[in-house]
Structure formats: C-alpha cells, structure tokens
From TrEMBL:
Parts of the chain that traverse the membrane: 17-35, 55-76, 83-100, 112-134, 141-165, 171-189, 217-241, 247-269, 281-299, 305-324, 345-365, 371-388
Annotated Gene Ontology cellular component terms: plasma membrane
Keywords: Membrane, Transmembrane, Transmembrane helix
Signal peptide boundaries: none
Span of domain Major facilitator superfamily (MFS) profile: 17-393
Gene3D superfamilies (alphabetical): MFS general substrate transporter like domains
Compartments in which it is found: Cell membrane
Organism: Agromyces bauzanensis
Descriptive protein name: MFS transporter
Topology term for the membrane: Multi-pass membrane protein
Molecular functions (GO terms): transmembrane transporter activity
Amino acid sequence: MSAVQGSYASILRQPKAVWAVAFSCVIAFMGIGLVDPILPAIAQSLEATPTQAELLFTSYLLVTGLAMLGSSWVSSRIGARRTLIIGLGIIVVFAAAAGLSQNVESVIGFRAGWGLGNALFVSTALATIVGAASGGSGSAIILYEAALGLGIAVGPLLGGLLGHLSWRGPFFGTAVLMAIGLVAIVVFLQDDREAAGKARPQPTRLSAPLRALRQPALAVLAAAAFFYNIGFFVLLAYSPFPLGFDAIGLGLTFFGWGLALAITSVLVAPLLTARMPRTRVLWIVLPLLAIDLAVAGLVIHEAAALVACIVVGGLVLGVLNTVLTECVMEATDLQRSVASSAYSSVRFLGGAIAPPAAAELARLISPSAPYFAAAGSVLVALVVVLAGHRALRRVDDGPETALVEAEAVGIGDAS
C-alpha cells in the first residue's frame, strides 16, 4: 500500500461528504457481528431453537448474496448517491422492525430485508468515498479501510453492551445510527448529476454477474470461497452457543475476533502478497484455518481455549478474505464490480448454509461436530484452489494498486 502511505497527513482534510459515507461504513460493517452476542438471548426470549436463531444469519446472507447480483446494475442506472440512500433507508426500516418483533420468524424475515440494504450500500460505498475525495484517492482509501476495521471490531462489542440490556437493543441502536448516516449523506453528498467532471459509469447488464461465472478462474475462486465461507460462519455464528457466555462476554470475545480480522485484512494480507504469490498464500493459510477449526472442536468444553481459537481464527480469516478477493480482481478482464458481485453471491450462499447446518449437526451428533465439519469444508476449498491452479496463474502477476487493495478488503469483509 505504498501509494497510500504518503497521504496520512491529509486524511483529516476530506470533504464532509467523505466523512458522511465513512461514518455510514462504520455502522454498516458493525452489522456483520452485531447480532452474534445476542443469539442465545434471542433463542431464550423468543423460545426459539438454536437452529432458528442461526437463521438470522442465513436470511441476511442469502438476500445479500442474491442482491449483490443486481447491485451494480442498480447503481449504474440510478447513481451512487441514490443507491446509498436507498440502501441505508432499507437498513433503518428493517433493523427497527426487527427490534419490534414478537417472534423469531419476524426477526428472520426483517434480517433478510436488512441484507438487501446492506448489499446496495456496501457495493457502492468505496467508489463513492473515492469519487468525493479531494486531493487524490490515497487518504480516502485509508479512511475507508479504517472505517471498515472499526466497524468490524466494534460491532460485536456494541451488540454485547446493548444486548445486555435487551436483545432488542442492537437492532434499535443500528436503526438510530444508520438514520444519522442517512441524513448526513442526504445533506452532504452531492447529487450524481451535479458532480462536475465525474462521468457516470456505463450501465451494466443484469445478467453480467451470472455470465461472469463461466470464466474458469472466477468459477474456481467462487467455488473455493463457498466452502471456505462455511468455515468462516461456523466460527462466527455457531460459537456463541458452546461458549455459554452472557451478551457482554460474547461481545468482548467477538470484539477480539473482529479486531484480529481487521488488523490482518488491512495490514498483514498486503505484506504477504507483496512477498509471495497470492495462490501460495492461500495454500499456506487455508490449512491453518482448518487446523484452528479442528482444535476448536477438540477444546470446545474449555471456554478460554475456545476463545483463543476464535481470536486466532479472526487473524487467519482477515488474510483469506482479502487475498481471495484480490485474486477475484485479477483473475479476469471483467469489470471489477461485476466479478466481485458474481464471486460474492456464491460465497454468501456458503455462509447462508453454515449457521443452521452447524446447529443441526450439534443437535444430531455432538457439539464438536460443526467445527470438524467446517475444518473439512475448508480443506475442500484448498483442494479446489490446488486443482484449479492453472486457471489461477494470472492472479500472481504483481502487486495491487491501493484502490484494488481497498476494494478487496471491503468486499472480502462485507460478509
């Protein structure tokens, strides 16, 4: 990220529009881990099974993945500002509705609506920050990455603190903060039609992301991400149940997880890919994640050891998220927004399946079974990458620009 390093001095001199979008990014990325600390409380308060509680992740990720297929089509036609406003408005409405729900089925449904808003917002935020920045994009990219890292780390902590008062607290808190972000964008972000000198992107075809999956390299990466994301969401979404902590304890645990993920995605992944081919990083780090998950299954009855596995998992996940998405950016000649939409839609399907499947494995076999299954799934991802190495030769062709790295961090961590 050498292109970014010289812009730290000007990072605080950005227009209000950049700060408005960055603030909204913090809140949007907080949504990744916000509900984690309250899953047991929701199950208890609404008399739901662990499998039903896990469907809060499934509905969110499934709709996010499907909506990603059309997000570039939408933003290329109505503009980034309107896309951001619509996305934030949807999140505000559905987060508040989830907090008012009286049964778990309603919460699951409203989380699905939240996923639609999140897909529209996240897919547009980075381009908007860079487009609104003054004096070059370098400092705006740093600000975006800082907002992303802060949101991922603070989300579980805030969820734990508010969830300690009531399981409804994190939902209402998100609605209020997103409403503030929405007002800030309406007030400070210039309308696309008034942005002098800023050319509107070419409209993309609605079918473009699905057609992109015909590319062998993109198909290999999407398949690997599908199986890898199963491991990701078993660690994130299933772990609150065997830990047995209260909301604050879970919030602190996953604050450590989010902080670890943010540090390695923003700082460590670029250092590794600058020193070795991206595919080699995947060959090394995927087995490390599988080992971490298997160890979690072995120490599941020791809370301190399981917490350590969760935090170590965050370190590994941060690298994998960013490197896999960098590979997607370089794998084809396709427009990056189209390639990332296609990849993300498949990846989120793996994430959608994992939480309820983990709860059912725990019920039918043993509490350790989800971790062992997740480790196996990550090893399948490794086999896919190894088997498709010829299709991935292009992804090892040199370092990324700062902008592509930031896109990889943002898209990679949007799950």
